[in-house]
Amino acid sequence: MDKPKSMIMVIFGASGDLTRRKLMPALYLLYKLKKLPVNFAVLGVARTQYTDEEYRERINLQLHRFLKAEDLNESLIDSFVNMLHYFSMDPSNPNDYLHLQPKLLELDTKIESGEHYLYYLATPPSLYGVIPQYLKNVGLNLDKGVRGKKRIVVEKPFGYNLDSALELNNVYYKDAFREDQIFRIDHYLGKETVQNIMALRFANSIFEPVWNRNYIDHIEITAVENMGVEQRGGYFDETGTLRDMVQNHLIQLVAITAMEPPMAFNEDSFRDEVAKVYQSLTPLTEKDMHEHIVRGQYVASENKKGYREEKDVDPLSRTETYVAMKLGISNWRWNSVPFYIRTGKQMPTKVSEIIVHFKPTPFLLFNCSDKQCPTANQLIIRILPDEGIVLKFTMKVPGAGFEVKQVAMDFSYKSLGSLPSEDAYVRLIEDCMIGDPTLFTRSDAVEASWRFFTPVLNFWETHPEIPVYGYPAGTWGPKESEAMMQEHGVQWINPCKNLTNTDLYCEL
Ligand SMILES: NC(=O)C1=CN([C@@H]2O[C@H](COP(=O)(O)OP(=O)(O)OC[C@H]3O[C@@H](n4cnc5c(N)ncnc54)[C@H](OP(=O)(O)O)[C@@H]3O)[C@@H](O)[C@H]2O)C=CC1
Ligand SMILES: O=C1O[C@H](COP(=O)(O)O)[C@@H](O)[C@H](O)[C@H]1O
């Protein structure tokens, strides 16, 4: 797939957090890498009023705030922001699209884009349905000749539950765009370290034979953050952690860890295997929902605000900022292997990692050093920060006697001399531009994921007695999530404890 020569990227939600923190820095980096189309312009769209000049100044300031110092280059930033244009409109008002169309044509004439438009929906999810419909009303969904392709990128969460996801897929999108024009973005798939899980599994012969229920005891997936909801209280209070993180990012990590080898690394084979994992998730019974899901909400502690004190959050909110749960996958490879996943805001540190816990040896022949008996082998895949992989195994303590202890063998991305790009958006925006949907979520996968999680949302809604446990901001979440794992005789490994390698730095 080739990079197009010309394109206009229309960002709905151009005054928002995602645009300033992720999209603009990613576009600037693509520009710096000379990966943008030669004739390129951005049309930022939102209700706030800005002139082109004001918008450029604003983005200029934000690039200085969000880019790393080594990426800042004043003259490049100046020429980059000159490609930005702004149009104030209300995306929920169909009449405003009558003005968007001539605005786009005007820009089109200026940069000769051949009406090749990439729409990016970075608005509140409540607008994800109407925008494609209103674009269609004015013909802005239609391809024009060979060059004038139209594509639409939609942020997560795609839908609010199964019904709304089905409606989005089958009514709003299918009516206006073909599946190959739709890019449902989940930025976890754009992370180098997540893609590397596939290389680890499918480009090495030593892991795959043991990657199954015969050798693996359980799998633990953590993606936690040490910040609260910041300026996104309004969005978050309606959304909650299950929709914001679990239904998309965490379940993607489950899929990449659990999937069968795709026939090839292409859009169909890879996404077929992801969808199969989602379809194989063992449906949760009410008992499971009681016993195997823990939700929490951070409360004030020391100098940190509680969730209910955050801006735009209902002071009586029961929205969860933490979820831990146990999942099962009903297939030959994974039957009876628990997957424990957890995510939360206001935790002690920011870390995303997968720990594959292998089964212990059937019998320990040796004494343990310092009374610390080695546990089973663990493979730790650190997604962020300090990206790397650690294999923990047991060795003899040198000297007399026969004591053993656990040590770590590690690979750190630092050792390659360059860290993977922190920003998955660089990779994913480039993929949208060239039209490669491999790393984007397909409609059947999104639906299968919602099919699994919607009963949980319904259960919470119809059972107000199910607790939302408070946890002090800055801690590892409700103690009930520990209890959930004890049933299997295991416990969460909090990152600072398990990384013995000093390269894999821990903030605590
Ligand atoms: N922020 C992040 O880190 C991430 C965000 N996302 C997703 O991106 C999407 C946008 O998130 P984010 O940028 O944080 O949200 P913000 O609230 O910061 O921005 C929303 C944007 O939509 C515009 N908008 C247009 N119409 C409306 C409306 N009717 N109500 C409210 N806003 C409107 C707002 O501008 P104006 O008021 O000027 O119209 C603003 O530009 C969400 O779906 C989120 O899940 C995904 C991953 C990460
Ligand atoms: O999509 C989202 O992801 C971020 C966390 O992403 P990460 O790459 O920094 O791990 C989360 O903060 C946000 O709430 C959510 O919308």
From TrEMBL:
PROSITE patterns: G6P_DEHYDROGENASE
Pathway terms, separated by semicolons: Carbohydrate degradation; pentose phosphate pathway; D-ribulose 5-phosphate from D-glucose 6-phosphate (oxidative stage): step 1/3
Catalytic reaction(s) noted: D-glucose 6-phosphate + NADP(+) = 6-phospho-D-glucono-1,5-lactone + NADPH + H(+)
Active site annotation, chain numbering: H249
Glucose-6-phosphate dehydrogenase NAD-binding domain: residues covered: 10-196
EC code(s) of this entry: 1.1.1.49
GO molecular function: glucose-6-phosphate dehydrogenase activity; NADP binding
Annotated residues for binding of NADP(+): G13, A14, S15, G16, D17, L18, T19, R20, R47, K156
Keywords: Carbohydrate metabolism, Glucose metabolism, NADP, Oxidoreductase
UniProt cross-references to SUPFAM superfamilies, sorted A to Z: Glyceraldehyde-3-phosphate dehydrogenase-like, C-terminal domain, NAD(P)-binding Rossmann-fold domains
Enzyme class: oxidoreductase
Pfam families recorded: G6PD_C, G6PD_N
GO BP: any one term: glucose metabolic process
Sites where the protein binds substrate: H187, K191, E225, D244, K345, K350
Glucose-6-phosphate dehydrogenase C-terminal domain segment(s): 198-492
Cellular component aspect of the GO annotation: cytosol
Function (record text): Catalyzes the oxidation of glucose 6-phosphate to 6-phosphogluconolactone.
Family: Belongs to the glucose-6-phosphate dehydrogenase family.
Listed name of the protein: Glucose-6-phosphate 1-dehydrogenase
Source organism of the structure: Bacteroides luti
